[in-house]
Amino acid sequence: AFLLGAPLLALLVRRFARASSDSIARYQDAQGRIAARLMEALGGARTIAAAGTEEHENARVLRPLAELSAQGHRMWRVQGRATAQAAVLVPLLQIIVLAVGGVRLAQGALSVGDLLAASRYATLATGIGVVVGQLGGLVRGRTAAARLAAVLALPVRAYGDGRLPLQVPAPGTRKDGGEPAATERGSTGRDHKAAAGGGRSRGPAPGTLELRGVTAVRGGRVVLDRLDLIVPGGACVAVVGRSGAGKSVLAALAGRLLDPQRGSVLLDGRELPELSRAELRAAVAYAFERPVLLGDTIGDAIGFGPRPVPLWATVRAARAAGADTFVRRLPGGYDTPRAEAPLSGGEVQRLGLARAFAHAGRLLVLDDATSSLDTVTELHVARALSRGHRDRTRLLITHRAATAARADLVAWLEGGTVRALAPHGRLWPEPDYRALFAAGAAGPPGAADSPGLPGLPDLSGSPAAEAEAEAEAGRHG
User: Fold this and answer.
1) H or E stretch including 99?
2) Which fold has domain 2-152?
3) Do 25 and 143 meet the contact criterion of CB atoms below 8 Å apart?
4) Which residues make up the CATH 3.40.50.300 domain(s) of the chain?
5) Which of 274, 44, 329, 316 lies closest to 159 in space, CA to CA?
């Protein structure tokens, strides 16, 4: 009787596991979609409020709620049905075993010990039935583990254990000491030195960045195609180009936030994958257009990085980014809780710049990190870049003509590669280059992005105007 009933229990458990797995997977998927939409809505709360689409957004976030409810009810129905079936089947199996055993005992075909053994088998079957009630948690855990396994299966960026050299090899030199790598027009090491160093003869400075035959694909589209570029150590290089030209991808490749599909990226002659994580993150600092501030206080947000930053270095970085003045106006200064600090977009961007300045190593990458700054503050930051970080390589992704004009070199991206690498003044006569900048930003070399705006100094390029802007920046710095 037990051997006939046990397969029924096994079938019950199997059907329950199969039905529960499907409903739990759908339930967790609906949960994930609601959470993702809620995070999107929280991130765009100001835009939603400005557009007056609160009700529409609320409906969009909660749209998967009906499916969540349906799958939840289905899950409980499956478990309830399985529990009820087990509650009927298990006692019935026990009764049948004891009844058959009793008859056999009365007939003398079984001993008392045999009947006791049969009773134990029935108890064992009862234990299997109880497992059905606990199987729901096991199935939920298994389904969640499958979703987690899909995340863990994503490729992990591997790092080496190498360190950057103290003596920097010549740009473009291969490991075997061969000829320099091919470069774009105007991008030879000789041109770099002449442009960035005024023609002075000197050895390579730390922070030399090289991209050799780099191809990068994003969203199925080739953004950079066999790009060759050398950024000399200690130089300030602005990267310009139309929207979608690959400027931000280039910035991400410079510090290995992305890996190219083909080609190699080197810092001071070492390929980035060869470097240890700690070495790479200490050597490359980033500031972004929309920085995310982390840490309990404003001071913690500036000091957030691969190594601790003392208070004096935090304050110095904030001054360089034009943030010290408004930080000191906060109720707790640098100890003000970050979540309680009322910050504008420009102030958040300045704190992001301060964080990059506090952790600047050999290479400083600014990915459109001054886009929300007014002209005076931008000039203050530009002065800090040129004076306080002149020994570091600076890669500036920008849409502003004034920023490009202050750089030593401009890398002009077009068609997935470098169309030209030269000083801003040499490129300005080309109509296509001038067309890269917005109408308000276009102007002669040294012009600001918004000349003639009320309350802002005229950066038309004249010495008097530049002196006025410098004085204004000094008063605000």
Assistant:
1) helix 65-106
2) ABC transporter transmembrane region fold (1.20.1560)
3) yes
4) 189-476
5) 274
Tell me how far apart the alpha carbons of residues 41 and 60 are, in angstroms, rounded to a whole number: 10
The listed CATH number (3.40.50.300, 2.40.50.140, 1.25.40.20, 3.30.360.10) that belongs to domain 189-476: 3.40.50.300
Q: Which residues of 28-59 are buried (b: 16+ CB within 10 A; e: fewer)?
A: bbbeebbeebeeebeeeeeebeeeeeeeebee
Which residue do the tokens 């009700």 mark?
A: 55
d(CA 340, CA 295): 12
Residue 467 has pLDDT above 80, yes or no: no
What are the tens digits of pLDDT across the range 403-462?
Answer: 899 899 999 999 889 999 999 999 999 999 999 886 434 344 443 333 333 333 333 333
| Residue 157, CB-side half-sphere exposure with 13 Å CA sphere | 14
Contact 210, 181 (CB under 8 A): yes
Question: What letter would DSSP give residue 343?
Answer: -
Q: How far is residue 310's CA from residue 326's CA, in Å, rounded to a whole number?
A: 20
pTM of the predicted model as reported, rounded to 2 decimal places = 0.67
State how far the alpha carbon of 51 is from the alpha carbons of 45, 46, 57, 471, in Å.
Answer: 10, 9, 11, 40
